[in-house]
Amino acid sequence: MTVRLFRPIEGLVVGLLLLCCSLGAQARVQELKTARAFLHVNAEVAHAPQEETREAAQLPFHWDRNFPGTTGQAIFDIPFTLELRPAYPYALYIPRIGNAYAIFINDVLVQSDGDLAEGNGDDYAKLPVFVTIPPSQLRNDNTIHIQIRVDRGRRGGLSSVILGPHHEVYPIYQKDHRLRAYGSQVVATLSLLVGLIAMALWATQADFHRHHHPVTAGLTHGQDPLYLMAGLAELCWAVSVSDFLTESPFLPWPWWGVLMVTATTCWASFMALFCAEVAHWRQYKSFVWFQRWLMGLVIGCVAALIAALEFGYPRVLTAWYVVFGITFVIFIGTFVKGAFKGASTAHRLVAFSAVINVAVGIYDLYVLRFSMDYRDNTYLRYSSVLFGITLLYIVIMQFRSVSEHARDLMNTLASRIAQRESELVDTYQRLEESNRAQTKSMERTRVLRDLHDGVGSHLSVALRQLQTEKYSREDVLHTVSDALDHLKLSIDAMSLPAGDITAVLANLRYRLDPRLKESGITLHWQVGKLPIVEYLTEKAMHQLQFIVYGALSNVLQHAHATEMHIQASLSAHAIELRVVDNGVGFDTDQRLRKGLQSMQDRAKATGASLSIHSQPGMTMVEVEIPLAKGDWVMSSQY
Q: Transmembrane region positions (predicted)?
């Protein structure tokens, strides 16, 4: 029985011991809030004393709340007691300290940053401070001695101090450092990226948004100001957030502070204009006044910053913050009200983002300008990411809208192209039929002209010869034979191979050889191997045929020759044809007869050159045909 009662009591005792050990382990991390302070305030304003000594001070200590518009130095002695000297490293974590500082543990300097004597230099109050304390440096009664230099308007001071074992304090520091340092870096990079993308869209993309809006349709089609406002806002925000990561600014204080706060103001102003573009407020006349008011706020921001940071009147900046906050509360109220009146999804998403950012901005304004707490617990830099996400949504939706519009245009264009192709096919078929009919008509015209000029002319001459007694039977036979030869050659011309001069000459020899024998003329054939002349068409071959035929016919009718030479040779750039006879000849200086003039015209139409040399006992007709096509156009006369 005793054993049974003892076991539950034993378990209860063990549990209490474990709980006490657990609580004891947790209690080793301390938050030190009490310190002895010595404050030195620079006499830069009338109400500030030269020095002030305080026996006790409560942390966190916010310099700007206690001594607004002044600079100075402060020394804090923070005692702490350890029951047992630890055998493992301790750590000191200070969420915010500065603007420059030096930390001593039991009179030993453990860490320092910045110049404690020279003000308006580097600012080390932006990131948390972590100090490792070796066990050998700790005693039962210890003192943390902290010296700081404070600049006007830079949120100088000292937060409460976290002390405890290294392995327990470090996770707390690491969490805050990631939030404030890495988080700021991510936001700055993201804002810079979104800003550059938006500016690229503005510079390259047409204003499809305004052009297709029912109210603004018909306005001048140009670059979309929606992307411009968003791009400028994100770039300004990237500059503003970079202040959290810049301990050594490239501009002296207070101008660096003027730049940072002005960048924040420009971000808010451009974001307001971005919201106005989403809501299509550009169509209203009051939009111009709204733009001017925002411009006035930016100018007023610069003036208020100079008054607060350079001349020590922080209330001017506070008043400007109040006006700025009221402006945006009214704007967001109007914008959100419009979001519930049949607005687009983009309008509603932007309204939601704006409400969140205004709420966070008011909270940050309270922390920065009114709260006595001294922590870097501003969150507007993180809530601003909502605008970037909303802009991404708008870009995707507009890209989708443009893609659908482009797809509709492509479908319409494809349909019209198909229709035009069908019309072109029909037109081409009609033209082909018309060309074929025209070709047949031209061929018929050419044949009829050849028959009229050749056969008809010869038959007319033969008829006149029969009607008179001056001509003999042989003359009439020659004339009729010429008419018959001309008719045969006209028929042969319908199937002459293009460019084959040898075939033309062979056909003429075949047709005229019987007449030459009847006339007692000996033919000497001196035709070598001739190439095909590519540019000579069927029409050109027809002209060439009748040039040579004209020369042969003249020999048969007028030369009274006994021998005739037909020569064809190839030179460097041309084919040379010659018809040479030993007849009576004629005077070449006299006006050319109709037959010879026709030969000249045919040569010109073919692109060849024709020359005639004649004297008693020898007449030579020479035709030179270039191997390459020259700058000539075949005449349509034949």
A: 182-204, 257-281, 293-313, 319-340, 349-367, 379-399
Q: Which CATH superfamily is domain 30-159 in?
A: Galactose-binding domain-like (2.60.120.260)
Q: How many CB atoms lie within 10 A of CB 567?
A: 17
The pairing of strands 61-62 and 141-150 is unpaired
Q: Which amino acid is at 474?
A: E
- Give backbone dihedrals phi and psi of 399, rounded to 5 degrees, phi first: -65, -40
- pLDDT tens for 517-569 read 878 888 888 888 888 888 888 778 878 878 888 888 888 778 888 899 999 98
Nearest-angstrom CA–CA distance, 26 and 85: 17
Please write the tens of the pLDDT for every residue from 20-64. 434 444 448 899 999 999 988 886 544 445 556 666 888 999 888
Classified as helix, coil or strand, 217 is coil
For 23-160, strand residue ranges (E) read: 30-32, 34-41, 51-58, 61-62, 72-81, 90-94, 97-98, 100-105, 108-113, 129-133, 141-150, 157-158
Q: What mean pLDDT do residues 282-311 have? A: 88
H-type alpha helices, 67-106 = none
What's the token pair of residue 310?
Answer: 């350079």
Torsion of CA 370, 376, 381, 383, to 10 degrees: -80
Distance between CA atoms of 483 and 451, rounded to whole angstroms? 9
CB atoms within 10 A of CB 106: 14
pLDDT per residue as tens digits for the range 306-320: 888 778 787 888 888
Report the CATH number of the 498-638 domain: 3.30.565.10
Distance separating alpha carbons of residues 198 and 180, to the nearest angstrom: 26
Name every residue whose Cβ is closer than 8 Å to that of residue 139 and which is 6 or more positions away in sequence: 82, 85, 106
Measured distance CA(478)–CA(469) in Å, rounded: 16
Query: From CA 224, how far away is CA 277, in angstroms rounded?
Result: 9
- Three-state SS at 260: helix
| The token pair that represents 565 in the structure block | 């030479």
Domain boundary assignment for the chain: 30-159, 178-383, 408-495, 498-638
Residue 246 φ then ψ, to 5°: -110, 100
Helices 538-554, 473-492: inter-axial angle, 10-degree rounding: 170
Tokens linked to 540: 């050109």
CB atoms within 10 A of CB 136: 8
Q: What are phi and psi of 109, to 5 degrees?
A: -70, 125
**Do 498-638 and 30-159 fall under one CATH topology?**
no
Taken as a whole, the chain contains a residue count of 638
